[in-house]
């Protein structure tokens, strides 16, 4: 499914990258620990066939990217130095191909009603066209089927962005609920592998970093009014050469930036223009170290269908107070919170704990497990997200099992790194 760390300090494969960027004189990338991510899909997961490619596949090859299997999709994991790509996003601007995510449009007079019954967050709060929100979608047992962003485009039109590996199952789940409710809603997936005939598939390009706005507007002058967008807002832009594209001020790196949704046929042209504007192409390895520094969850790792959103630290996205009913509400309320979600800083150590590693108190009592971890290029030591028993205080010293060794760590609040923007 994803790359694996077979040791806490692993040397990446040799790769040459964009503009020949390397960290060492002989062209090798540096010794760099990378994220360890589990491979088990959840019960709602149906992965696309192996090695699906995105509309930007040719662009990755032209930049001499190292390709890898990411949630069943052939994507760039690095173009050269993972660390340089990471720092480019923190210090300037970098871009990612996220076209393996599935954009899905929901049309119809019952669209708001159906989303209100399916999502844990209240879409009724979305009243201004372009406004977006984060939410979980739960099963009847209160487990997280997926986490997603949904955008209000009009009274009868919403757009959701679904995770790559869960998208097929998500679409089937939504359509089944629509059928049960006999609702007037049409669900239109826009990803290349599942788009209906006659509908244009969409590619997704995420541009992130303190100079992302400046450089995106340089590359796409037609999007100049997007400069005033607030976070979790979007706008539709008519671009002379690429047609209509959606510009959303969203992202998971902790930096300012835009996510661009453009028709697949024009995605390569937009990517090339962004690159010509000085935006560094970055791979999925850098994306994961960035999102972990930002304390952002990744579905299938930090939560899944067996996890309550309350235990995953996502209670803020679950509307339990308004009286609105939605799938999984009763189960979440009945189960309550049994774990707390925290950050772990392994200060002074680059040893990256594998997912599911045990977290213990200093006295040796098991208090939780790691959900995902990486080496932080910004901080210079390993960091992790974990679910632990309630009552563990911020600042508490703990031990984390890393390949039969117990490494000292400290419980911290997330994000680990606050963006420069």
TrEMBL record:
One GO BP: methylation
EC assignment: 2.1.2.10
Binding, substrate: 259
Domain GCVT N-terminal, residue spans: 58-321
A GO cellular-component term linked to this record: glycine cleavage complex
Gene3D superfamilies: Probable tRNA modification gtpase trme, domain 1
UniProt entry keywords in alphabetical sequence: Aminotransferase, Transferase
Pfam families attached to this UniProt entry: GCV_T, GCV_T_C
Keyword Transferase applies: yes
Reactions it catalyzes: N(6)-[(R)-S(8)-aminomethyldihydrolipoyl]-L-lysyl-[protein] + (6S)-5,6,7,8-tetrahydrofolate = N(6)-[(R)-dihydrolipoyl]-L-lysyl-[protein] + (6R)-5,10-methylene-5,6,7,8-tetrahydrofolate + NH4(+)
Residues covered by region (Disordered): 1-30
Transferase found in the keyword field: yes
Segments forming domain Aminomethyltransferase C-terminal: 340-417
Molecular function per GO: aminomethyltransferase activity; methyltransferase activity; transaminase activity
Entry similarity comment: Belongs to the GcvT family.
PANTHER family the UniProt entry points to: AMINOMETHYLTRANSFERASE, AMINOMETHYLTRANSFERASE, MITOCHONDRIAL
Protein name: aminomethyltransferase
